[in-house]
Amino acid sequence: MNVGLINPPSPFLTNERVFPNMGLVRVGTKLKDEGHNVEIFDFAGRNPNGIKFIDDFDVYGFSSTSPQMPYTMRLFNNLKSVNPNAKTIIGGPHASAVYELKEKGIRDYNISELEKFDTIWAGEAETKQLSELLYMNMFKLGWVRGELSKNLDSVLTPDRSLIDMNFYNYNLNGKKTTSIQTQRGCPNSCTFCCGRDIEMYKKVRQHSPERVVKELDELHDKYGIDSFMWYDDEVNVNPKRLEELCDRLSKRPYQHRGFVTSDMIVKHPNSVDWLKRAGFVKLCTGVESGSDRILKLVKKRVDSQMNYEARRIIGQAGIHYEAFCMIGFPTETKKDVNLTKEWLRKAKPDDFDIGILTPYPGSKIYDEAVPSRKFKGYNFEHKGLYFSKPDYSKEKSFYKGKNAQSAAFTRTDTMPEKYIHKMRDKIEAMK
Question: What is the pTM of this model?
Answer without folding.
Answer: 0.94
